Amino acid sequence: MEDSVLLSRYQETLSFLNLTAEDLQLMAEFKELFIQKAQEFVNKFYQHLTKFPYLQELIKKHSTVEKLSKTQAEYFISLTSEKIDADYIKNRLAVGKKHMEIALYPNWYIGAYRLYYEVVGELVARKYSPGTELYFKAVNAFYKRINFDIQLAIENYIAEQLKYLAAIQEQVADAAGFISSIATKTNILALNASIEAGRAGEHGRAFGVVAQEVRKLAQESSKVAKEITEMIKHNMEEIEKIRRQNSGMM
């Protein structure tokens, strides 16, 4: 997707969140403070995450705390960026795709942001007194940005899930088509066998009974294959509907 199209697509989301240029400028004032706090925050972040066996296994299987800490620190500091451009959006979408690939479920991802909400309040309080208008404006600006980031990641997580489901449906459709093809061929063979059994008279009676049963089985298999095809068609329509809803196309 071209950068201009990507930005245009998410402009409505930014407007809905009321994430403004003023908000971005306000967050940028905290850049040095976020840089100073980054490593301390990341250490706390992964100390918390690694308390949970499932997350421990994911990290061990796909990366290391050291590598992830670097990426997390970069993201932490990026919250003070004065711009949200195409690269920023692509990065957040890529997070959702990666989470789908490694099976990091949304409950873990969204839950981890609790630590971000906490540290934002603490850092803003170092510059503006809690309870003042500027304090609330700054905290709200960060919360809106975090909300936007979560939306992007979850949207692409769902999109990747739908792609995966669609791929499975296509595989099942291929299998159903193969079954239908075999059923058709078997039905023809059974019909020919019945004709030959009839010509053989008394000697072909037993063979004729078998041929009839084979033909019946082929017809039933063909019926099941058609039913599977109809179910797949319905499921694919539902997947497409969800995909369109998820991407804001409806």
Automatic annotation (TrEMBL):
Leader sequence residues: none
Source species, domain of life: Bacteria
GO molecular function terms attached to this record: heme binding; oxygen binding; transmembrane signaling receptor activity
Residue ranges of domain Methyl-accepting transducer in the record: 159-240
Record InterPro entries: Chemotax_Me-accpt_rcpt, Globin-like_sf, Globin-sensor_dom, Globin/Proto, MCPsignal_dom, Protoglobin_sensor_dom
One Gene Ontology CC term in the entry: membrane
GO biological process, alphabetically ordered: chemotaxis; signal transduction
UniProt keyword annotations, A-Z: Transducer
Record-linked Pfam families: Protoglobin (PF11563)
PANTHER family, alphabetized: LYSOZYME-LIKE PROTEIN-RELATED, METHYL-ACCEPTING CHEMOTAXIS PROTEIN MCPB
Family stated for the protein in its record: Belongs to the methyl-accepting chemotaxis (MCP) protein family.
Protein name: Signal tranducer domain protein
Organism listed in the record: Carboxydothermus hydrogenoformans (strain ATCC BAA-161 / DSM 6008 / Z-2901)
Organismal lineage: Bacteria, Bacillati, Bacillota, Clostridia, Thermoanaerobacterales
